[in-house]
Amino acid sequence: MHQIATLGLTALELGWVQAVRVTPETCAQIASTAKELGITISVHAPYFINLNASEEEWPKSRQRLMDAAYYGYLAGATDIVFHPGSYFGESSVQVMKKVIARLTGCVEELQARQIQVTLRPETMGKSAMIGSLEDVLIMSREVPQVQPCLDFAHLHARAGDGSMNSYEEWIGVLNDYAKALGEEALQRLHIHLSGIEYSTKGERNHLPIQESDFNVHALFTALRDRGCAGRILCESPNLETDALWMQQTWDDLATKK
Fold this sequence. Notes:
This protein is α/β, with parallel strands linked by helices. It is about 45% helix and about 15% strand. Strands 1-2-3-4 form a four-stranded parallel β-sheet.
């Protein structure tokens, strides 16, 4: 974390993507160091969470999400990002009732335990996965303490045809976001960003930003013009270099208003 501060970066996402294996004591150290250095903390929960899991498998998925929220809160995290799961061949309309009911139950437990974090279902890069822009907006509109994690590279890859990569398209996304959740929600964005390789079926893997066709300048200009604020987390394989490049690119654009 000291390296992050030395680089002049101000946010860190703890990648607890395989499992939550951390003690309360370690969490307290993370929270203390982050506060001292002025670094905001979020958590990426384990990949093995599925809001559309079978009745037999759901308790395991639920526990992974709740563990990420509890220990993340102890570590000073404000936001818990997670992958919402798979449609398993069903339509979004078919699965959303179950998804919302299960997510509501998780939030009710968090509130009862006074765990003050925002759960953030992530936009996903494959059309077979729960996580379209519409999906995460519905979840956030229907369930308190839930807001999207906007992975713009995933939205680009999910289309599978090179679209979702222009200024006009990103303005449209941000307008839809504000229409669904209110203009003030644009001040609390939680963004994942990287380069990305994709096929007609969607995401294949993340790439360094400048090895991808992703138009970062178009996205950042749209974010600037809509007056957005929040947090951008770099998910490039080249983390430090690309995080610094994104910060410099944003700073350069911001001075051109």
